[in-house]
Amino acid sequence: MTDPLDKATSTAPATLGEGCLSRYDPAALTPENGADFDGAAALWRELQQSEVPDERLVEKGAKGEG
């Protein structure tokens, strides 16, 4: 490292798309980027199997309240 500013910089992961459709490339995200998705699939399955709706997500009109 010859440039002293090299250690003070960071780079964003690769992106896909352009403009308002721009998003980080999931294949480029790693735990070093702060993207640890190990439990995401298990959490998604658990949430989908839950039969009790979250009251915060149910609209007042949808519960039959007048």
Describe this structure as you would to a colleague:
The protein is α+β, with helices and mostly antiparallel strands. It has one domain (13-63). 15% of the residues lie in helices and 6% in strands. It has one helix and two strands. The protein has a two-stranded antiparallel sheet. A hairpin with a 6-residue loop joins strand 1 and strand 2. The mean pLDDT is 77.
Summarize the structure.
The protein has 66 residues and is of the alpha+beta class.
Secondary structure blueprint with pairings:
Elements: E1 15-16, E2 23-24, H1 40-49
Antiparallel strand pairs: 1-2
Whole-number tally of structural domains: 1
Summed up, the helix count is 1
N-to-C order of helices and strands = EEH
Give start-end ranges of low-pLDDT stretches: none
Strand ordering within the main sheet: 1-2
The rounded distance between the terminal residues' Cα atoms is: 68 Å
**Outline type:** elongated
Proportion of residues in extended strands: 5-15%
Helix content: 10-25%
Q: How many beta-strand segments?
A: 2
The largest sheet is: 2 strands, antiparallel
Kindly name the structural category: alpha+beta
Average pLDDT number: 77
Rg (C-alpha, Å): 21 Å
Keywords:
single chain; alpha+beta; two-stranded antiparallel ribbon; 1 helix; elongated
